[in-house]
Amino acid sequence: MRNRVREERLRRELSQAELAVELGVSRQTVISIESGRYLPSLPLAFRIARFFALPIEKMFDPQEEESV
Question: Could you tell me the pTM of the whole model?
């Protein structure tokens, strides 16, 4: 599943640590979500989408394959 967490974080010039604080998670969680190794829980996915003011389907798209 592709997500836009890294792209949106960089657009807003936030570090992974800063985003982690905003979301109430660890920096390692942010790293894992950005790399696609961890799928956030539904409440966390909604929190991320709300933080970036994007619909959840724009942040996390199960139809898009991550380009390698």
Answer: 0.85
